[in-house]
Amino acid sequence: MEWIPVVFVVFKFLVLATGMFFAIKWHYDQGKKGKAQESRAVLRTSAKVAVLFVVILVGLGIVTFALARVLGLDLGYP
Q1: Helix (H, G, I), strand (E, B) or coil at 16
Q2: How far apart are CA 67 and CA 4, in angstroms?
Q3: Tens digit of each residue's pLDDT (9 = 90 or more) over 7-34
């Protein structure tokens, strides 16, 4: 009875490793298909996300300072 968990764990590891190998291989092969056009789309999308992140960050800073003033918190400036 003590060898059953060992066999099951080894079997599970082999199945998961095989599945991971083929998943990574499939994604790698899919990435090679439309590389140039896809890289432009990824670059454009990442630029949009970066701009959105900066806008949200600035907005959060403004809201934080406004809320701090309303609550009368000392922000360390005159």
Answers
A1: helix
A2: 61
A3: 899 999 999 999 999 999 998 888 777 6
